[in-house]
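Operator note (shift B, R.M.): manual run for Flagellar motor switch protein FliM requested after the automated queue skipped it. Running by hand, logging everything below so the morning shift can see what happened. Input copied straight from the record, untouched. If output looks odd, do not overwrite the archive copy; leave it for review.
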Amino acid sequence: MTMAEAKTKAAPAMDHALLSRLTGALGDKKTVEKLCSDFGQLYSEFLPDIFHSETGLDMQVHYKGHESGLMNDVIADLGDNVVLADASLRNWSPGFVLGCNNSFVITLMENLLGALPETIEEPVHRPLSRIELDLSSMVFDKIANVLRSGVNAPGGFEPLIEKPHNAEDRAKVEDDHVDQFAVVVRMGIDLGPISSEFYLVIPQKALLKTVVTVPKSKGQMSRNRKEWADQIAEQVRRSQVTLEARIRLQTLTLKTISRLTAGDVIPFKEKGDVTVDVSANGKEMYRCEFGRAGEKYTVRVKDNVSSEDEILRHLMG
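Run finished. Output pasted below as returned.
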């Protein structure tokens, strides 16, 4: 081999795990286990008190262990019945992920809407609705603030949390993306008869530099129950709900319907005020009158088909 050939020959790439270990982005098993259990202790002691002081609900939180691996792999391993939110905390980690099993958010919503404990059942596996996603952002806010209170992040900065999303809506990574090693801290959370989990997905580069300290005063992290209720109400008010209006048309024979073509006219069933049924997510809510204001067609509410509580319960789910 000539000198020129030797210079042009590409050097073999260093093993990703070895490089990460040498640069402080991958720790040994014992160190990682200790740090994850420290997070477990932090949440076990603080999160139940915060939820109780702000909602009046009793829940238990306990550490369930951890998993290590490439960040996007461990997130994918959480499954599709979770809600996720990307987050950052200045002077600690520019990017970590919060996760929560959908069943906890659904159960929390039922409790906050006043459901009796004996009527609450194990939720079905499904994506969260828009309003439930709004509630999950408040759950993540509590989880992130407990984290902030216990880690060595100088400057007193607040965590920045992006809008939560269902796991199935998570953006795909590019094919050439070089992933980093991370851990998933698994926390069990029991609310009434329902047992669920929430998760911290932390890059090991940030984890290995972390000192977890349990704060002395729990009360400093809690707000009062009224503020929590007001915050939920505000989230609900800002949530967008798509309404659908259905108008009854005149009865036609199948023969006539099969021959309809562009330009044919089908009369409304009523000859006077035209009745319109308004629904959302498949549930009828109002009976209205069909009308027009300027160039826009409108409906005017005449009667409630469902009570306010029934409407809220349906839309929340």
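Quick read of the result: Residues 29-55 form the longest helix (27 residues). The chain has ten helices and eleven strands.
Leaving this for review. - R.M.
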